[in-house]
Every structure is written in C-alpha cells, then in structure tokens.
Amino acid sequence: MSHDTQTVYRTTPARTGKMMAIMLGICIVGGAIFFSLWDYWISEPAPVVAMMAGEADHAAPVAATGKTITSDLSFVESSDFRTLAFNALPGEPDNNPTINMNVGDKVIFNVVNDGVSFHAFGVTKDTEGFGGIIPGSEIASPSNPLKAGESGTSEFVAGEEGTYYYICTVPGHREQGMVGEIIVGPAQGGSSSGVAAAPTGVSHDFTLDFVESDDFRTLAFNALPGEDGNNPEIRVNSGDEVTITSANNGKSFHAFGVVANPEDFNNILWNSEIAAASNPLKPGESGSTTFTAGAPGTYYYICTVPGHALQGMVGNFIVE
C-alpha cells in the first residue's frame, strides 16, 4: 500500500515576526525620505520647461514714474498649519494687505518667513495657481525656498492696469490663504510719448558679470540673490550713451542684451547685444557693447541664452 507524500513548508512565529518588523521598518524609512523631500516633489517645473510651455507675457515697456512703494510682508501660519497668510491670519488686522499703485510705479517687497514651514514669494497675474511669476518679483523658489527666519527682497514695476497677486509660490500655499491683491490704476502724469530723445552727450559705464550658484540652479549678474550687488538696477536718461562690459565668471555659456520683455530673448534692443545665444561667451571670456538709450520706459537686461533670464539673469533697465 503506497502513500503520497507532500512536503509542507512552515515557519516559526518568531521568524514571521522578524519579517514583519523588517517590512515595517522599510515602510517607515521610505515614508520618511518621501516626506522629507515633499517640497521637491511639489516644486515647479524647471524654468526652461516653463518658458518652452509658453507662459503668459507680463512685461511690456512702460514709463517709470519714479514713485516707489515699500511693502513689508511676512509669511504666517495658524497653529494647525491649515491656514496660511501674509502679516496676519484672517480676521486679524493687516491680513493680506491690498497694495494700490499706478502704471509705472515700483513696489519693493521686503519679505520674511515668520512661519515654521518653507515659503517662497512672487507676483503673478494668474487668478489661481502658482505659475506666471513675473521676473524680478521672485524671492526664493519652491525648489529653494526661504526657511524659517530667512528673508529676501524683490521688486515689481506695474506694466499695465489691472489686478495682480502676490503669493507664496510653494504649490498649495496660495490656496491655503497666502495671497494678496495688487491693484494697478492708470498712469498718473509724466507718461512717456514713446519717442526717444536726441543724444544727450552723457555717457555711462556699467559692469554686469555673469555668475552662477554651485548647483547652477540660480543665475545672476554680479552677485547671487541675497548678496550685495545682485542684478543692480540701471537708470539712465533717454538719449544717454551706455557702455556695458560683461565677463563670464561662470562655467556655462552666456550672452547679453537689453529687451522689452525678459521672456523674449530674440528681440534685442538698440544693438545692445554682447555675443549671442548661438555664439555665446565661454567661461572666462568677456565683451562690451555701447549703445544709445531709446524711448523712456522700463526695460530689462538679460542673459539671452534661452532659460537663463528665468533662472535669475535679469535686471531692470530704466530709461527716464
């Protein structure tokens, strides 16, 4: 009489417990890594990607009025972190203060992170979301935000009438309450006719060197954000002669030009280019350009290599 035999594999409760403990440990460590990088997972696409996607054009030449408004803003949070705001929580005085200005006015933002989370700042015309940030208005970014206690400064020149919004650019924070309005009214006196003045005989010399952060995520002229001399504002009169000298102090390729729109790197004004995106300055190279400032308005000097202006190589060029 024969009997079929079948091997049965068993394990002990102790071994089962060890296996479960190992699996639980892997889940805990993986979860900790994931949430420690939360700001990375929800960060915006790289600036070049946003540019290629065709974000809205917010910049156009505008006559500067010479009026400057200073706005001190701080990121604040409720104790349960469900409500976020500027300066004060909803229902408290000075919550998300509205800024009123006119076309051609400039507002300087002094922003500090008084919360415990990470935050970043920018101005947009978009009615929702965290995109469409106007170059020059940014302070930090979702991928490199202000930590608790850190601060920064930026500025915004109103190019057209309408409602703009200052926001926390970390995804989701605007929806939690970090948003305020900027109401821009029509230009008040001293508006430009859009006609360039005759040569004045006055000459200016400026040095604007290309610099980069170690990780190449932040680009700038002369100094990185937060350092003295970062993207200095240039202010001249229509008809003045301007000479710009630029040295490539970085490791990538760069080129220079003055434009009406910092996102339009192909439309260089007044023969102001130094090198070109197709034939840029290599590391260690330098160049200069001399041109006559055109019609009064707010223009921008940028690196004309695609994407570099959006990474920080942009400054105001004011013609009065």
UniProtKB/TrEMBL annotation:
Residue ranges constituting the Plastocyanin-like domain according to the UniProt record: 96-187
A GO molecular-function descriptor: copper ion binding
Record field: transmembrane: 21-41
SUPFAM superfamilies referenced in this protein's UniProt entry, alphabetically: Cupredoxins
Occurrences of domain Blue (type 1) copper (ranges): 231-320
Keywords noted in UniProt: Copper, Electron transport, Membrane, Metal-binding, Transmembrane, Transmembrane helix, Transport
Annotated PROSITE patterns: COPPER_BLUE, MULTICOPPER_OXIDASE1
Keyword flag Manganese: no
Pfam families listed in its UniProt record: Copper-bind (PF00127), Cu-oxidase_3 (PF07732)
Name assigned to this protein: Blue (Type1) copper domain-containing protein
